[in-house]
């Protein structure tokens, strides 16, 4: 199944928290649900849970990056 890369705008504090949780093997549920919602808004149906893959290191705009596995032909 294809993957869709989701970029979520966030602040540096939240980005650090999500990254720390990921390193501890835990999940930041709010951002994971936001990634799922973003995939749905793009007209894609998630086939599983979004997977955190990292953060951008921009100086101004920081984003959380999630990969979401989606169904090939399914649209909402």
Structure overview:
By secondary structure, the chain is of the alpha+beta class. It has one domain. The chain contains two helices and three strands, in the order E-H-H-E-E. Strands 1-3-2 form a three-stranded antiparallel sheet. 20% of the residues are buried. The model has no long low-confidence stretch (mean pLDDT 92).
Number of extended strands: 3
Number of helices: 2
Rg from C-alpha positions?
A: 12 Å
Instruction: Write the H/E string, N to C.
Output: EHHEE
List the helices and strands and how they pair.
Blueprint: E1 3-10, H1 12-23, H2 29-41, E2 51-55, E3 62-69
Antiparallel strand pairs: 1-3, 2-3
Region (Disordered): 26-52
Biased composition (Basic and acidic residues): 26-39
Characteristic key phrases:
76 residues; three-stranded antiparallel β-sheet; alpha+beta; 2 helices
Give a brief rundown of this model.
With 76 residues, this protein is of the alpha+beta class.
């Amino acid at each position: 199944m294809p993957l869709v890369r989701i970029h979520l705008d966030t602040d540096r504090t939240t980005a650090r928290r999500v990254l720390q949780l990921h390193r501890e093997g835990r999940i930041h549920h709010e951002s994971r649900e936001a990634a799922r919602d973003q995939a749905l808004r793009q007209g894609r149906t998630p086939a599983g849970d979004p997977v955190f893959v990292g953060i951008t290191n921009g100086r101004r705009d920081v984003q959380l990056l999630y990969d979401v596995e989606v169904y090939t032909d399914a649209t909402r």
